[in-house]
Design brief:
alpha/beta; 221 residues; 7 helices; globular; single chain; six-stranded mixed beta sheet; Metallo-beta-lactamase, Chain A; 14 strands; 29% strand
């Protein structure tokens, strides 16, 4: 599988194009903006995008979805719990960027853990990691020892939890049970910023310490 990476939009979202080398079928993760750049990448790679698989639906991750969906015919995939977040995306884009956007694109397929997501011979495990948003998903390629984690965890940080539908205790617990259970050498591709590894975050990310986890659990009790 080929992995192409673009940084898009004012909020510098990491967008990924995953291409099966045999069939040229492709999945697109988080087309946050700059649809023209994304479509040029698709054309240069000779890929046929069949699925747009978003990690979540905050505005900075979905702004290019309508144009890419229309141009490629790819289905838009999202967790069902993200529908309210998608519904607020136009309002958020106006508040943050002064930009008119909407109506939101229809969701073609609702994804959930256990669904079979396979690009050629590459299997992607889906895990639900709520907290930054209610329906945040991560996609894990175990054979390649890597995961696309959206805005759940960053290099040295975690996703914001001060938006509607967020929960700091929920996010901390979900990271521990759904991401830190992966082996240390797994690469993590977050929604913003540099790439990292499970081991690096386990050792150096102060948000993921046992003390913070205990405090978050007490806050949630």
């Amino acid at each position: 599988m080929q992995i192409h990476h673009l940084v898009v939009g004012a909020l510098q979202v990491n967008c990924f194009l995953l291409v099966d080398e045999a069939s040229h079928e492709a999945y697109l993760i988080d087309p946050g903006d700059n649809a023209g750049l994304i479509l040029k990448l698709v054309e240069r790679s000779g890929a046929h995008v069949t699925r747009i698989i978003n990690t979540h639906a905050h505005f900075d991750h979905v702004l290019a979805v309508p144009e890419v969906r229309a141009a490629t015919g790819a289905g838009f995939h999202l967790h069902r719990d993200e529908l309210p977040v998608l519904g607020w995306a136009g309002e958020a884009a106006a508040a943050w960027l002064g930009r008119t956007w909407g109506p939101p694109p229809p969701v073609d397929v609702y994804l959930a853990p256990g669904d079979d997501l396979r690009l050629g011979t590459t299997a992607l495990e889906i895990r639900h990691v709520p907290g930054h948003s209610p329906g945040s998903l991560i996609y894990i390629n175990h054979a390649g020892r890597r995961a696309w984690v959206g805005d759940t965890v960053f290099a040295g940080g975690i996703g914001r939890t001060d938006f509607p539908g967020c929960s700091f205790p929920q996010l901390i617990e979900a990271i521990h049970t759904q991401i830190l259970t992966l082996p240390d050498d797994y690469a993590l591709y977050p929604g913003h910023g540099p790439f990292t590894t499970v081991g690096r975050e386990r050792k150096t990310n102060t948000y993921l310490s046992d003390a913070v986890r205990a405090d978050a659990a007490e806050e949630n009790s």
